[in-house]
Amino acid sequence: MAFKSSLKLDSPLFSAEKRKAAGGRAVYKSAREFAQSTQNKMETGAHTGKIVTKARGENFRVRHQQSRRGQRPAPFSKRLLLSVRAKRLSQTESTVEVGADYAEHLQFNLGRKIVTPGDLKEAKKNLDNNLVEEFRKLTK
User: Fold this and answer.
1) Would you tell me the crossing angle of helices 16-44 and 117-139 to the nearest 10 degrees?
2) Cβ distance 64 to 19 under 8 Å?
3) Pair 97, 85: CB distance under 8 Å
4) Cβ pair 64, 54 in contact under 8 A
5) Of 139, 119, 138, which is closest to residue 30 (Cα–Cα)?
6) pLDDT, position 11
7) Regions of the chain with pLDDT less than 70
8) CA-to-CA distance for 58 and 11, rounded, in angstroms?
9) Which residue, 84, 85, 82, 86, is CA-closest to 24?
10) What is the end-to-end Cα distance of the chain in Å, rounded?
11) Is the sign of the CA dihedral 8, 14, 15, 21 positive or negative?
C-alpha cells in the first residue's frame, strides 16, 4: 500500500514579505538607538575645554565649558543635540542625520567628533543583535 506524505512550511520565516518587514524594523530600531546613543554621549561626555562667558541679555551672562579638540561637542543651546534624528527612508533603509547647519564644521574642521569610528562599530553590533531578535520573533 502506497502512501503520500507532505510537509507544509507555513512559518512566517518563509514569507519574503515578513522577512523584509522584520529586517526593516531591526534597521529602524538600530537607527533610533544609534541616534539616542549619540545624543547621550554628547551630553554626558567629558568637556574639559576652556570656560567661556556668553552674554544673554542686559546684565545677564552664562558660563559654558567648551569641549577640547577630539572630544564630542559640549551642548550649549541643545540645538545640535536635538538635531540628531533617525529617519526611515524605505521599508528596509534608515539613516541618522544631524540637522544642525554647523554639524559638519564641528565634525570635520574643528575636530569635535559627533560620531567616532568606535560608535559605528557599536552600531553594527547593535544592528546584528536587532536582526537576530526580529528573526527569532518570526520563528515563534
Assistant:
1) 140
2) no
3) yes
4) yes
5) 119
6) 75
7) 1
8) 68
9) 86
10) 37
11) positive
Condensed to tens digits (0 to 9), the pLDDT of residues 48-71 reads 878 888 787 888 888 877 788 888
* Residue in this structure with the C-alpha cell 547621550, named with its chain if needed: 40
Q: Would you say 53 and 62 are in contact if contact means Cβ atoms under 8 Å apart?
A: yes
- Kindly tell me the sign of the dihedral angle through the C-alpha atoms of 93, 108, 110, 117: positive
Q: Whats the size of the chain, residue-wise?
A: 140
Residue (of 114, 120, 34, 123) closest to 71 by Cα position: 114
- Say what the pLDDT of residue 69 is: 84
Residue 113 Rama label (left phi>0; alpha psi -120 to 50; beta): beta
With residues binned 3-state (H G I as helix, E B as strand, rest as coil), the percentages for the chain, rounded to 5, are 45, 15, 35
Q: Residue 57, CB half-sphere, CA atoms under 13 Å: how many?
A: 2
